[in-house]
Amino acid sequence: MTSVDFNFAEPIASSYDSVDAGMTTSPADIGSVKKSDFVVLNGRPFKVVEITHSKPGKHGHSKVHLVGIDIFTGRRHEDVRPVGHIIQVPKVGKKDYLLVSIANDGYATLLDEDTCQIRSDLSIQDSNTARRLRDKYKEDNGQIKVTVLKALGEEQIMAFKVID
């Protein structure tokens, strides 16, 4: 029998090892979540569109019924959880860029007006907003300012407007 060299004084894993360096989410009490807040359900960012609290039952705790819309896909999701539980809240950021061009492969070239940096890593998804954006870009009526929404490491163009 061989001995295994193991130090019982050192922890195997700590909670700090699993935390993302970018801190894309933060914990919150589910009882404090309100309508129009952002939450993480099934690993996706959702905007809460409806929330109801139920009374405690004979053998249980009061529950929270959440209805949310995925901020990137628009899909609806419902979830029921006890009031005392913790839910993750994503850090959602919005940033405006000037649209420089749209490549044939579907990637947009964007200019950050604050830092004057150009990025070409954002793919335009096949959605209603993307189709309208392509049509406006082909019309060439002026500069287009796009709003990019970022959450949980995912980015997408959510809105745009033509500026003169």
Quick description:
This protein is mostly beta strands and 164 residues long. It has one helix and eleven strands, in the order βββββββββαββ.
Q: Helix coverage percent of residues?
A: under 10%
Q: Looking at this structure, what is the CATH superfamily of the largest domain?
A: Nucleic acid-binding proteins
Q: Radius of gyration in whole Å, from Cα?
A: 22 Å
Average residue-wise pLDDT: 85
CATH class of the largest domain: Mainly Beta
* Biggest sheet: strand arrangement: 9-8-7-10-11
Query: Which class best fits the helix and strand makeup?
Result: mainly beta
Compute the separation of the termini in Å: 79 Å
Would you identify the regions where 5 or more consecutive residues have pLDDT less than 50?
A: 1-21
Q: Give the tally of β-strands.
A: 11
- From the spread of the alpha carbons, the general shape counts as elongated
CATH architecture of the largest domain: Beta Barrel
Q: What fold name stands as the CATH topology of the largest domain?
A: OB fold (Dihydrolipoamide Acetyltransferase, E2P)
How many domain modules? 2
Provide the succession of SSEs: EEEEEEEEEHEE
Count of helix runs: 1
Largest sheet: 5 strands, antiparallel
GO biological process, one term: positive regulation of translational termination
GO molecular function: ribosome binding; RNA binding; translation elongation factor activity
Pfam families: eIF-5a, IF5A-like_N
InterPro entries: IF5A-like, IF5A-like_N, IF5A_C, NA-bd_OB-fold, Rib_uL2_dom2, Translation_prot_SH3-like_sf
